[in-house]
Amino acid sequence: MRPDTPAENVDHAAEAARLERTAGLYPEDAEALLLRAAAHLEVSGDRPAATRLYDRLLSSAADSPALENPSLVRALKASNLWEYDHEAEARAIIDGVRAAAPRDPAAWVIVAEALESHDELEAAHETFTEGARLLVGDGAEPPYPTHPLLYGRHRVRRMLGLDHDEWDALADTLHSMPVSLDELHDPKRVWSLGSDNPADLEAEISRLRAELGAYREALSRPFPVAMLHWPAGELAELLEAYPALAAEYPSYEDHLATIEAALRELASSGTPNLGVVPGTVPSYEAFAASESASPTDPTLLPQYATTLAARGLAVTWPPQRGAACWCGSGRTYGECHGAE
Predict the structure, then answer these.
(1) Of 43, 109, 270, 331, which shows the fewest CB atoms inside 10 Å?
(2) d(CA 107, CA 98)
(3) pLDDT number for residue 4
C-alpha cells in the first residue's frame, strides 16, 4: 500500500493478506508485519481473524524467545477481544499485562484506553498511573514514548473531575499544540457537537484540528539515527564468513564501546531520536543481495542499519531508567554501558 493512499480506498483484507505473505518471506520482520496485518483486519471488521494473528504471534513466542514485545501483542489482543463481546477474556488479559509491568509504554496505553473506552474510568486511571509510575517516575523530561501515558491519564482525570497533580502539570508542559490539554480533554466538549450555535461548532473544529496536528506530528517522527549492533554470536559468524570486515570490528568489546561512544557524541551535538539496531548475518546477506553488492563492502553497514531502523527495529537510546542495557548483557543500562 502506498503511504499516500487515502484510507477509504484501502482494501484492508487484501492488505492484511499481502502483509501475511510478506511475513513469510521475511521472518525476522514477522512480528511488525503481522501486527500491521492484524490492524488492517480490525479496521475491516474481521476481528476474529485479527485475534487469530495475535494468537499466532503469541504461540510462536512459546516455542522461541523471538517475540520482541509479547506484552504489546497481548494488549492489542485484549483490546480487540473486548470490541466483539469477549469481555471476560479481555479483562483477564488486561490484568495479566498490568501484573507483568511491561517496560513498553504502548502496552500500558492500549490496555488503559480499552478500559476507558468501555467506561471503566477508575480502572483506566489506575492503569495509566501504574504505567507512569513505572516508566516516567520523577523525571522532568520523560522519554517521548511515555508522553501518551501522561496525556491519557490527564484525559481520564478530567473526566473523573479530579484536581490537577504534578503529572498533569507535566503533561501540560509537554503538550505543544495551540489548544491546551484542559480544553482538549474538557468533558463538556461532547455537548458542543449538538449545539445550534455556529461559534460552538467552530470552536470544536479548531480543537479537532489541534488534535489532528498532534497525531500527525507523532506519526511523522523520523525513524531513529541508529547504530548497528552485532550481538556476540552474530559478530563471530559475520567475521568467520567475511574476514575482510575484521578491520571494522577488532573485537566485540571494542564494537560495543564504539557504539556507546558514537551515540554519546551524537547526543552531545544535539542529534535527537537516537537508537541501536541489532543486525543478523542472514538479513545482512539478504540486504547485500538486494543492493547487488558484496557483504564484504563496509559501506553497506550504515546503509543496512538505516534500513533496519526504517522498519521500526531500532531500540531507543538511551534506555529508560532501570531498563536493560542495549548490548544484551542482562544488566540495567545504568550498571552497564550507562555507567559514567
Answers:
(1) 270
(2) 9
(3) 40
